[in-house]
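Write out the 3D structure for:
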Amino acid sequence: MGDDTLRIKATGIDHMVVHVEDVARAKRFYVDLLGMEVAHEHDGRVFLRCGQQQLGLFKARQPLDPSAGRDLNHVALQVESGSYEEVKAALEASGVAVSGRRGDPRCIYFRDPDGHQVQILAPRT
């Protein structure tokens, strides 16, 4: 074997999948609150567009335990605009409990309706 072996180089993430108890509820959360757009839906699964990537919402086959960490640790999202304070206030106004990361004024953490941790990186000012 020579050096003709293909070298694989990932150039981006096409999509990630999280398992949810209620696909419609999760879809509303990610579309209505976080501004994602439906890319396509089929068989009770929804793929949401987030920039060039997609987030798949799949119906969980068994009760979820997101704290177990076997499914996903967290999803980190970039947002188009808004200061840390504005993004935090918009989430809290929607009834979402948020927290930050000590020493990092851009990071906002919260949980989706199924308990998955989501992080928003507020734009750099």
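The helical segments are 23-33, 84-93.
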